DNA sequence: GTAATCCTTGGAGTTAACTCTAAGTCAAGA
DNA sequence: TCTTGACTTAGAGTTAACTCCAAGGATTAC
């Protein structure tokens, strides 16, 4: 029912350094320590790490994640704040996805150009053809 | 037909600092300078900036962008390399989008929980209901 | 002609998020 | 008991991508 920092590192793919860094940064305030000072991670701590990863991977800075953790520790009086945070973050993710899609289209267009350019042996020729089309 | 660094900054939303930093980093090797040493940006330079932004916004590090610029300067003998780079980058973008979508689902689930929690006034109660459902 | 506003450079400083080092503690196995 | 390996801490170092500063040169507005 308890995991060492090394076991958690293996489970999560984070390094022990990173886990300690997260704790020092205030992202993991719930972790218990054994009598000899060794961190003992619980399954709940793994859940916290999982949501931290989710927020981090979608572009939330550690500062923002810490805010969420702090609110969680304060209990039900911060429910609205947390809800608003998630709603705003969802909008940010939507924006990010939309921008990625847009840029992806551009990359795909480039791929088309370069495929033809490789065939012809010249990018300039392909660009001239493009200009004529218009 | 030429723009000063300040005009380009306004057009692109980048700062003059960033533009000089990009030039120093080798991302803008085509920019001319006037007799008195002032940078004169052409429309083509703006196109380069635009593709640089596209690659940067989709997560390519400046190092990778510089590689692409360097290949471009080498001419048609690097066409295959550039094509491969774009194809790989497209795959990276696809992965990124897929992960964002997955994490977005999770955030949306959280939003659902928190909406109910705000109504009820307790997150714990909502989580217990969830557990019962299963 | 002079003040304001641009531009130049080299180099230092900042921020986020790690990443590592040194020196030491602790528990289990041969 | 001795060694091995995982753990502890404080604090220094790294990387990417800016961001800023000081000191000075060129251009334009009046």
Structure description:
The structure is a homodimer of 134-residue chains. Chain A has 134 residues and is mainly alpha-helical. In chain A, 73% of the residues lie in helices and 3% in strands. Chain A is built from six helices and two strands, in the order ααββαααα. Chain A has helices spanning 5-12, 16-24, 43-57, 62-74, 79-120, 123-133; strands at residues 32-33, 39-40. In chain A, strands 1-2 form a two-stranded antiparallel ribbon. In chain A, helix 5 crosses helix 6. The interface between A and B is medium-sized, with 35 and 35 residues. Chain A binds a DNA duplex (30 and 30 nucleotides) through helix 2.
Task: Give the helix/strand layout.
The structure is a homodimer of 134-residue chains.
Chain A: H1 5-12, H2 16-24, E1 32-33, E2 39-40, H3 43-57, H4 62-74, H5 79-120, H6 123-133
Antiparallel strand pairs in A: 1-2
Helix pairs in contact in A: 5-6
Chain A binds a DNA duplex (30 and 30 nucleotides) through helix 2.
Considering residues with a beta carbon less than 8 A from a beta carbon on another chain, report the largest interface and each chain's count.
A-B, 35 and 35 residues
- What is the 3D shape of chain A? elongated
How many whole angstroms does the radius of gyration of chain A measure? 24 Å
| Largest sheet properties of chain A | 2 strands, antiparallel
Unreliably modeled segments of chain A: none
Give the SSE order of chain A as H and E letters: HHEEHHHH
- Give the quaternary arrangement of the chains: homodimer
CATH class of the domain at 5-74 in chain A, please? Answer: Mainly Alpha
Strand content of chain A: under 5%
